[in-house]
């Protein structure tokens, strides 16, 4: 059965079978083992869409994002953007694709130079991609600072003069400075106070509308992902367990892992019956992932088949994909 999400216009970004293995104890050929940080992950991203990626810490969300923008080199797979595989691009073509896909990080403080005024930080990516004259870049940076809710005169201020939320606004201005098509937001509000989180989320949504952006929104906080995403992918130990439109995923979670994640979140509708799945044990090491279904060691429903055979991610309901032998 064809996946509805791929019918019609081709997706803006199509990520297929991405793998990122980190060698342990030597270079790739001499490695004593591999951390399978991302192991055969795929998804599509459409224009102006937000895809949420969720899963516990260490499941490979950041590595997935960083691999797509080639901050780290992939071990395998493809990332098709405008018909070209980002993983095969070199030189000028890679530069130009990189301009179109920007990242916003959890901690903007670590990516801002404490000795550089923030206006210059915003201009930096424009200079790298040779956009505008010096004067035009300055004007654009001021305009962007204003657009993200800061004052134009704050162009001349240093990072330490800003709060966490303001610094994240600067991080966002920086990502937008080169007019990207896609922004990969890696836990952009996780380090912020809850009251500030919603302001930054609202800003991201406004900017998405204004600049027709597509987002890959990475978070471990399900309520944030639910709020902002059109579709959600649930990752566990480097693999995609379930993928569905947001409403569908939250109304009818199928994978036992997703159900366990959701059962730990308060449900706003008290009439909804709350099932509680408590996971046994802790997350296994991605250096020695379990056989078969990587989730079987913690799954209350695991069978012999789950120990032996990795379930494929298959469409079990329209647009709802699940990697589980139970269905
Ligand atoms: P998440 O963002 O979901 O918390 P990450 O993508 O950061 O997860 O990490 C996935 C796995 O890859 C983790 O087990 C992590 O320890 C491992 N990992 C990440 N970066 C490296 C690296 N440079 N070298 C070795 N292992 C790494
Ligand atoms: Mg991360």
Task: Record the SSE blueprint.
Elements (H helix, E strand, L loop, with lengths): L12 E12 L8 E13 L4 E5 L6 H8 L7 E6 L2 E2 L5 H10 E4 L3 H4 L6 H11 L5 H14 L16 H13 L5 E5 L7 H18 L2 E5 L3 H7 L2 E6 L2 E7 H6 L4 H8 L40 H5 L5 E4 L2 E3 L5
Parallel strand pairs: 3-8, 3-9, 6-7, 7-8
Antiparallel strand pairs: 1-2, 1-4, 4-5, 9-10, 10-12, 11-12
This protein binds adenosine-5'-diphosphate and magnesium ion (MG).
Task: Describe what you observe in this structure.
This protein is an alpha/beta fold and 327 residues long. The protein has one domain (13-322): Rossmann fold, CATH 3.40.50.300. It is 32% helix and 22% strand. The protein has 11 helices and 12 strands. It has helices at 61-68, 91-100, 108-111, 118-128, 134-147, 164-176, 194-211, 222-228, 246-251, 256-263, 304-308; strands spanning 13-24, 33-45, 50-54, 76-81, 84-85, 101-104, 182-186, 214-218, 231-236, 239-245, 314-317, 320-322. It has an 8-stranded mixed β-sheet, sandwiched between helices. A 4-stranded antiparallel β-sheet has the order 2-1-4-5. The longest helix has 18 residues, at 194-211. The radius of gyration is 21 Å and the shape is globular. The two termini are 16 Å apart. The model has no long low-confidence stretch (mean pLDDT 92). Magnesium ion binds at residues 61-62, 187.
């Amino acid at each position: 059965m064809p996946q509805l999400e791929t019918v019609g216009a081709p997706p803006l970004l199509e990520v297929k079978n991405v793998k990122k293995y980190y060698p342990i104890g030597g270079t790739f050929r001499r490695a004593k083992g591999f951390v399978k940080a991302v192991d055969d992950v795929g998804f599509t991203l459409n224009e102006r869409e937000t895809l949420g990626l969720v899963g516990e810490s260490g499941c490979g969300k950041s590595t997935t994002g960083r691999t797509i923008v080639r901050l780290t080199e992939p071990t395998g797979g493809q990332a098709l953007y405008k018909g070209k595989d980002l993983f095969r691009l070199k030189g000028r073509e890679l530069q130009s694709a990189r301009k179109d896909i920007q990242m916003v990080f959890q901690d903007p403080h670590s990516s801002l130079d404490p000795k550089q005024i923030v206006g210059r930080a915003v201009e930096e990516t424009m200079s790298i991609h040779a956009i505008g004259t010096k004067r035009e870049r300055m004007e654009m940076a001021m305009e962007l600072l204003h657009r993200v809710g800061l004052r134009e005169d704050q162009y001349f201020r240093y990072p330490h003069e800003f709060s966490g939320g303001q610094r994240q606004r600067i991080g966002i201005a920086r990502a937008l400075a080169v007019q990207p098509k896609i922004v990969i937001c890696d836990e952009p509000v996780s380090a912020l106070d809850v009251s500030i989180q919603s302001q930054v989320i609202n800003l991201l949504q406004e900017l998405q509308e204004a600049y027709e952006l597509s987002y890959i929104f990475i978070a471990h906080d399900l309520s944030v992902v639910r709020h902002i995403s059109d579709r959600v992918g649930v990752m566990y130990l480097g693999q995609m367990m379930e993928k569905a439109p947001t409403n569908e995923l939250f109304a009818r979670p199928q994978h036992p892992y997703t159900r366990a994640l959701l059962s730990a979140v308060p449900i706003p509708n008290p009439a909804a019956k709350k099932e509680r799945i408590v996971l046994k044990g802790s997350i296994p090491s991605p250096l020695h992932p379990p056989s078969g279904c990587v989730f079987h060691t913690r799954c209350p429903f695991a069978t012999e088949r789950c120990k032996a055979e990795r379930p494929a991610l298959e469409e079990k309901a329209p647009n709802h994909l699940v990697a589980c032998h139970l269905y």
